[in-house]
């Protein structure tokens, strides 16, 4: 089974692409949904968060008070690292279980929708990386319109993230969302067709004979780890770098 990583930047349209792929019967594992699931009341992850930050980060109904926890971790780097050390492993394990579920179902492909796919280095563990892109100016305008924020506030949020242009260096497939919704849907249609055809006849062989699938996946992951460094060296060798 081909595991594809989907990412982008804030207001580039990644979530729109994720929904459109799901509507075309492409299995999607959404990291943001998993991040909410792993901290539901009674979960081991929520218990660890309460042990670390205290019961005051819970609402009266026992659910996580996200604004209150956010106020703690966003102003303290050490506290943020503690929270990430609790939540990130739980989300990654949930991703693995989701991938396993789709593999057991005999799916040809599944998509990991991960906003921090590059930053968290999860891109090293997928077979393809898809980046949803638009120019920085369009991204800024869409963010201002979406959130009703000022240009200065929107720019500050963009500057706090890895630039979308940098993520393109890791992309195997780029969806350019600088145009209309209809233009994006045409690209998603082609992407869905491409993903469904990925692997050809070998897809069923890899599923029926797991060692073949594991060998194929191992080679893909090795190449994934080497590929960005090749691109980096190539850029440095180009004029102006």
Account of the 3D structure:
It is a single chain. It is globular and about 50 Å long. By secondary structure, the chain is an alpha/beta fold. Strands 2-3-1-4-5 form a five-stranded parallel β-sheet, sandwiched between helices. The chain has two domains: about 1-25 and about 105-230, P-loop containing nucleotide triphosphate hydrolases (Rossmann fold, 3-Layer(aba) Sandwich), CATH 3.40.50.300; about 35-105, P-loop containing nucleotide triphosphate hydrolases (Rossmann fold). The chain is built from eleven helices and five strands; from the N terminus they run βαβααααββαααβααα. The chain starts with a strand and ends with a helix. Helices cover about 60% and strands about 10% of the residues. Helix 10 crosses helix 11 (about 210-235). The chain has helices at about 15-25, 30-35, 45-55, 65-75, 75-105, 135-145, 150-160, 165, 180-195, 200-210, 210-235; strands at about 1-10, 30, 110-115, 130-135, 175. Belongs to the CoaE family. GO terms for molecular function: ATP binding; dephospho-CoA kinase activity. Pfam families: CoaE.
Keywords for this structure?
alpha/beta, single chain, Rossmann fold, 241 residues, globular, 11 helices, 2 domains, 5 strands, five-stranded parallel sheet, disordered C terminus
